[in-house]
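Q: My labmate handed me this sequence with no annotations at all. I'd like to see what the chain might look like in three dimensions before we decide whether it's worth expressing. Could you predict it?
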Amino acid sequence: MTRHLDTIVELQDTLTRLTAARARISGIPEWMQELHAEHAAEREAIEALEASAEQAAHERREAEASIADAQEKLQRYQQQINAVTTTREYGALLQEIDHVKAQIRTGEEQGLAALERQDEARRAAEEKRHAFRDLDERYATELGRWEAEKPAVASEIGALETRVAELRAQVPRPYLSLFERLLERMGGTALAPVRRLETAAKGVQVWHCAACHYRVRPQAVVEIRNRGSLVQCDSCQRILYVEEEPG
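A: Here is what I predict for the chain of 247 residues:
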């Protein structure tokens, strides 16, 4: 009799390996994750300094525009001085002139401060870029190494996908439907091994589901081991199987 449980166990194992392989090819391999994190952090720091320099340049341009507007006003007000006829008008015009001169001073201070921030951020960014070159070269080298390894991982994925299709075809539809429902519900793990607990009483064997630790009936263990029956855990509902004990 075909032991469909054995096929389902292999199917679960193959799907697990397939998921891991797909994650590897779409992500960063473990051996270069630290370098990747360092590279990303340094690049982000450079981009932040460049953004800071650009923001300071924008503020400097705004300050310069504000100064230009104020200087135009100041020129108009100064031209109006000879045209005023009363002391009151003269005093009001002087107030406007003082106000515009204050705006010019403020704009000059703001423009100078923005220029200093811009220069400082640009210098810091240039220093970072210079120090980043070696790291960037190392990262490019390791990235090239990873790109060279990807075809092998892609080949592994293809072989695993083929094996998954073969195994699915070997499992009767009702069993396969049950497996796939559990696979989706349990986040990719539809099976759980049955494990034996150590007991004080000699000759007494107590079994439990390794996923949820719920006790499994000895008769269920016999059915799984001897007949390959599909038995679900009474608690978590995963399909149970007995792990091969090392010889």
